[in-house]
Every structure is written in C-alpha cells, then in structure tokens.
Amino acid sequence: MISCRISKLLRDAGGPMPLELDLKIGKGERLALYGRSGAGKTSTLRMLAGLMKPDAGQIAVNGQCWFDAAEGVHLNPGKRNIGFVFQDYALFPNMSVLENLQFARGKRRNPGRIAELVEIMELGELQDSRPGRLSGGQQQRVALARALVSEPALLLLDEPMAALDPEIRHRVQDYLLNAHRQLGFTLVVISHDAGDIFNLADRVCVMERGIVTREGTPDEVFLSRASSGKFQFIGEVLRLEKEDLVWVVTVQIQSQLVKVVVLEEEAAGLAVGDRVRVASKAFNPILSRLNPGSI
Amino acid sequence: MNWDPLYLTFKLALVTTVLLLVISMPLAYWLAYSRSRVKPLIETLVSMPLVLPPTVLGFYFLLAFSPGNAFGQWMNDWLGIKLVFSFPGLVLASVIYSLPFMVHPIQSGLSSLPDSLREAASVLGKSRTQTLVHVLLPNIKASLLTGVVLAFAHTVGEFGVVLMIGGSIPGTTRVASIAIYDEVEALNYEAANFYAAVLFVITFCILLAVYLINGGYLKRFWK
User: Fold this and answer.
1) Reduced DSSP (H G I as helix, E B as strand, rest coil) percent helix, strand, coil of chain B, to 5
2) Do B117 and A76 touch (CB under 8 A)?
3) What is the ipTM of this complex?
C-alpha cells in the first residue's frame, strides 16, 4: 500500500506550475497516469522514485517512510527497492544484455532470478549482445528485465511504449502483463495513449496542469461519454478554410487527417490548435478485417 | 648523441599524465554534474593555463616554490621536496599547466552522456563511485584517450614554464624543448635537429594512433 501526498512547484516553458497530488496505490495494483505532456506525470514518477525531491508532503510505502518534508526524510532511490524503466531505456552501452542484468543484482542474490527473467522476456539469444545492436522492442524488454532483477515491490514505467511500433507494443505489453502475473509487483505507468492504458492498467488517473482531474477504471474514464452509442474522437484543429457557404476544418485525430464541414457560426468559435471532439451519430459503421500489409 | 633531454621529456610527460588522470577524473566529474555556486570560479581557474602566457605561470610558480616563501618552505621542511630547479617542481608545474587539457575532454565526455544512465544506476542502488567506474568511464573511453594524449603532448611541448622554474640543468631539468633552444643558441644545428626530429616523429605517431583508434579505423581494418 503506497500513500503519496506531495506538492511541488514545477517550472516549465509556460511558467511555474504547482503540482498537488494525493494518491493511494494498493499492493499489486496497476495504475496509469494519463495526460498531455507537461501535465506533471514524469515529475510524479520521478518523485516516487526519489530522483526528484518534492517541496512538501509525505510518501509512505507499507508503513515505511520514503519521504517526509517535515521530518527531513528523503530516502535514496537505491534504498526504495523499486524498478524504473526510463523513456530512453538507459541501458548501459558498455555492458552486454546479461551484464546489464548482472549489474542490477544487489547484495541480496537470488541466483535463479536472472535466468527466470531471461525466460519471461525471451532474452536467451540476445544475452551476449550490446544494447546498441538491439531493436527498440528488444531494448525495452531488456530494460524491463533489468528493472525487475532486484525483485522490486514497485515498478515505475515512463512512457514505456512511446517509441515502439503498434505490433511490438502489444508484444511488450504481453511480456509486461505476464511478468506482473508471475512476480506480483505494483505497477505505475505513464502513458498518453488510451490503448496502452486499456491493456496495461486497472485504474487510471488523468492529470492536467499538475493535478488529478479524473480517476477510475479505464472503461469509466475513456468510455463514459461514448456510452450513448456515438462515434467520437478527440483531435486537434490543423486548418480552417472557407469554401463557398461552408467552412472545412481539417482535424488531426492521432495520425489521421479528417476533413469536417461546419457552418460559418460554428467555425467562428474555432481556432487552429484547438482540441475538438469529432462525433457522428445515426451512421452504421462498417467493420471489415484488414489483411496484414494492406494498410 | 646525448639522449638525456629526450629521456627526461618523456619521463616528465608520463609522470604528469598519470598524475593528471588520477586528479582529473573526480575533478571533471564534479565540474560536469555539480550545481555549486563556486563552480564557475573553479572552471576559470582550471582553464587559466589555456590563455595565460607560460612565462606568467612560470614566474608565479617560481615565486611560490621558492624556499623564501611559505609554500616552498613548507614543502622543503615537511616533505623534504625542493621545488625550484628540480624534477618534482617540474612535475607539479606541468600538472597545473596541462590540467585543462585533461579535464576538459573528460568533462565534456561526461556531460554528453544522458542523465538517465546515472539515474538508472542510482535506482539500482549503486554508489557514485561504482557508477563512475562501471558505467560512466567505460562509456567515455574516447574522451579519456583524447585527454591522456593532449596532456602528454602538451607536456612534451612545454617550454616557458619549464624554463622559468627548472632552468636548464642537464639531467635534472633540461628537457628536449630547452635543449633545442640551447643548441640553437650555441649554433649547434645538428644536435638541435636531432632533438627536434625525434620529437616531431614521436608526437606525429602518437596523434596518428589516437585518430586511428578514435576513428575506428583499426577495428575496420581488423575485420
């Protein structure tokens, strides 16, 4: 059980932004922090890890105090028994895959642990390679394995899937869920991808400008408004053009561009860069299976 | 031919480089990662030999090392080391004079590594020394080599500082660069040419080796 009540004044390009958090994370839970970049997700994760020091508050894990501003307690990252997977994986380039895992082994040596992780993450054939020669998905698996060598009770993942192709993404998610089932750690994962969160987390906190604005299961958070049966997507306005009597708005929804026709009075309230919801009703969507390679 | 000046030059360069390597690793680590307020001051002091005329440095070393002064006297009384016109004095002056040539490559090598490497090691419970030895230094081998070679070459090429505090005592402080100057003064061009040619060839070979190693040419050749 982790209870984390912290605040910190963050500084970014947009000026100071206060971060205020009150999180409770159960043992073995899979929590996702969701939000746009700059919302304070990575800072939250770094403060849980001890890589960044909050201004005020406490972090207690199973009764052990990790941070207490009033008492002046700030436990070093190495003493928190956590695993951390960095966005750039931070594998040591001078060591082979196996050496990376061996370096992570602390004083408590469980001889079977590395072999077990090599098995779970299917790293057998990669053991002697240097990280520089591996693909993104392979590096990610090594980083996950390395973070789990010291048998952490808490695993922290910073945008673990951001740099991966969709197909590799699902495989890495499977590895991660498999490891979670077998090893039973608590998981906190940052993502700005709803799909990742659906697969990985059983609870999600939506963060905006340093605070949690919504919280619930991925279903509750992401599907609440879709329950009326409408199709809807969130996108960003790229362009507004007048064509005869109507306006054509180009909207980017993830990596797709969509053109939507609106009336002049609707267009008046829009500007380039606005976040918009594109919804449609009274259509019967047609679902057809794509052959691999036909995209 | 008298090989003493050449032997002395390379002995001085070797001792200086080894000492510099030991001193520069922790110093460069501190300069690369510290956020202390005195950092700009220390950085300036380390870089001073780059811009100061060697004679200025040599002049102040001469004053500081002289037994008439507190530091020189203390070294003489307590450690029994006489720094003026002696080999230990040359070593100390060379270490300070070549310091930036060793510290700067290591410092920029460390700064160019992603922070996440240090953070990952710290999450894994490694101390700073363990991180430096096992993670950081092995990943900046090229910078270390550059630092070693620059410091060595710079010490070989020293003239002004050595002349000021070492003079030209044969076998003790008369290094090759000074010997060349002395021989030319005495119109003994043949001896000067001998020393000059040896220095030229050796420094050329050292630099060539560095470019071959850092450029990966050797690895490609062996494949």
Assistant:
1) 80, 0, 20
2) no
3) 0.79
Whole-model pTM: value is 0.79
Verify whether the Cβ–Cβ distance A82 to B122 is below 8 Å: no
Query: What is the CATH number assigned to the segment(s) A2-221?
Result: 3.40.50.300
At A279 the three-state DSSP class reads: strand
CB-CB neighbors (< 8 A) of B134 in chain A: 92, 103
Q: Where in chain A is the domain with CATH 2.40.50.140?
A: 232-289
> Is the model's pLDDT at A294 over the cut of 70?
no
Query: Is residue A155 within 8 angstroms of chain B, CB to CB?
Result: no
Up-side HSE of residue A175: CA atoms within 13 Å toward CB? 26
**pLDDT tens, residue by residue, A268-287:** 888 888 878 887 766 677 77
Among positive and negative, which fits the CA dihedral A130, A131, A134, A137?
Answer: positive
| Residue that is written with structure tokens 């905006």 in the block | A208
| CATH class for the domain made up of B4-196 | mainly alpha
**pLDDT digit string, tens, across residues B37-90:** 999 999 999 999 999 999 999 999 888 888 888 888 888 888 878 888 889 999
Q: Nearest-CA distance from B153 to chain A in Å?
A: 28
From the CB of residue A138, how many other CB atoms can be counted at a distance below 10 Å? 20
| Fold type of domain A232-289 | OB fold (Dihydrolipoamide Acetyltransferase, E2P) (2.40.50)
CA distance B216 to A221: 53
